[in-house]
Amino acid sequence: MDAGTAQVVMTTLLTMGSGISGWAVGRRKRNNDFLTEQQESIELLTESNKRMVARFTEVVAEVVELRNENTSLRCEVNRVKQELETLSGEHRRMKHTVAELQRRVNEWRRVEA
Asked: Region 18-27: what's the mean pLDDT?
């Protein structure tokens, strides 16, 4: 082999070697970049999930509070209904008593006149 051919072969081998090593290093970097992007994406999703769970917990606590308030208000409404029924009964009895007294007064006036 003459010197020119040897130089061409060496240049070709060096070029191929540096190309292969560049490809291997670049591939590793691309893989690392991909893994880094995936990790960042996972972290963003985790933070989003944490916020959603916190909000969900708040909403559930609010629903429980509203249900308790609703139950309390229903009890109060039932108590007021019973009181209204009692007062309505008293009102009817008093109205009847007033009518009876009015009848007696009218009767007494007729007797006096």
From this structure: 73
